[in-house]
What does this fold into?
Amino acid sequence: MAKTKNSFSKILWISVYLVIVIFVVAIFAVLSKIFSSQELLIQIMAVVLSVVFTAVVTNTLLTGQSEQEEAKDKSSKVFEKKLSIYQDFLAKLCDVVKDGVITKQEAVELEFATSYLAMHMDSKDVEMLISEIKGIIDSMGPQAVAEGVRSSTPFDSANLFRIVAIFKNDLYKEGTKLDTPEFKNTTTKFNEIIKLYFDQDEQPAPESIVSDNARENMTAIVEEIKKEMGAGWNGEIMNDDPLGFAFDKGNREEMAFFMNCESGYYFQLHVGAPEKVDAVYDGLKYFFGGRRNKYSWWQWLAPEYRDEKEFVRLLESGDKDFKKYLVEQTVDRLQHFESLNK
It folds into this structure.
């Protein structure tokens, strides 16, 4: 806009100088009797109109050209800025998920990085972006988020490629489609590659340390918990190595209570109804401690029972204190859940 004002100012001064020159020449022509006064008036008017018309047309052309150049320059700077921001975000996302763990600090940094993107993107694109980020975090599992336990499964690369497609569409306005066979084929191949590296990174599975006696004792524990809880509760052993169990009331999507092992044994409860999540998870956390996030509440077993090998040893030996601990702790948490889920 400054360039436009300067151009208009120069044209205005040139027009003023021309008009002054014309009047000087006109006075000279009258005094020298080259033109009659009537002819001179017509000539002056024609010249003045010509000068004004030329000045207006020239100013219009220069203004349009300046605005186009400014718009082009602004568009180029915005493109470069967006490209830099999107690259920085992908680098930040890589740093957060590459170790299979999301710390509280990383979660905050990722949230701020996403909010920074919202300054440069449409709200619809931001909503799609958040959905894909959630997909990546979900695939890492609640343990990776809540306690910093390394995820043992790779995230779905389709989420990552959808994020890239959102950025690409915003930069180049190409309208990249995400449901084409080519896109799905690409993400499938990348998933296979990522899984290959995860498999290589994992330690070889140890030989089974679970005996038939341990399984029998676990079955007895599950049956005793079911007896304490009464009708309506289902219970079953989950996995053989490591052993675990699960309880529900007929619909595991609606509610499920687990005892799992991943870097140590822990209790975990999941509620499907969004309106009950806060009341149930916060209530369990208040009574028992542990951790919670959007997806579950969970808590380590007591330190003396947490280790996998020690857990199996006690289970195999039929240790009465250990059996009592598992039954009482599980029943207590399930009963509290029932009171919170009303």
Q: What stands out?
A: The longest strand covers residues 234-240. The chain has three domains: 2-75, 98-201, 212-340.
